[in-house]
Amino acid sequence: MKHKLDLLENAIDSLREALEKYEDGEAKGLSSYKFAILHFSHFFELLFKHYVTQSHPLLIYKNPFSKKIEKENTIGLWEAVQFLKNEGMEISKDFNDDLIWIKKLRNDIEHFKFELNAMEVRQVLGRLIRATNEFNDEHGIIDVADYLGGVHLKIYNELGDEYEAKLANARILASEASDDDDGHYCDSCGESYVAAKKGGELHCQFCEEVTFLFECIHCHEDYREDEVRTWNDDHSPHIDYMCNYCYDTIMNM
Length: 253
Fold this sequence. Notes:
By secondary structure, the chain is an alpha+beta fold. It is built from 7 helices and 8 strands. The strands form 3 sheets. The protein has a 4-stranded antiparallel sheet. A two-stranded antiparallel ribbon has the order 5-6. It starts with 6 loop residues before the first helix and ends with a helix. The mean pLDDT is 84.
């Protein structure tokens, strides 16, 4: 017997496997998540290659001018992403960052050691599904859900829809709970408008992480740790901080 799949069919087949392993992970523990990540990563790589073939099937090959095209290597995910950018299709920074995350984790699983966090896996996969749907809607390429059915479609929609619902609720809570009536970006989960500013801290209403803020001694605004520099630490334990903008402005005067 032969098992033959074209590029898109192969991508969807990997997605189905990923969704099944993800559901196993929910019921049986973290070990199944490892295989879910491997299959999800394969799905995204094949899906982006499929996007490229919509411009021309031969562009999937690194050397489309070869006389022995069937022996040529095909492009990878990042070459496909760059091709789409060159064609004017926007890949958001968040989408790109999540693709980097899943590819790195896939590589660590296959070649090195790795760590898995169930909440992080769920959040990133939910974001990737949401971003994939938005990308497909914007450019009218395919509707992934059309190729799924039964339990696969249920899990796929739950991952995307649950994430959307939780994200929307977190943004409302952040705005209501924040001292400045505004939601802020969270470094931990990578989402915007989900953290409430409370005194000198940001409390994420989505992933529940707390980020400490530091007041700039010059402009008196609050900043994250990676946005400030030590200005005066001669009188420990009190330390003064200055934001990068004020620091550079003063040093360049």
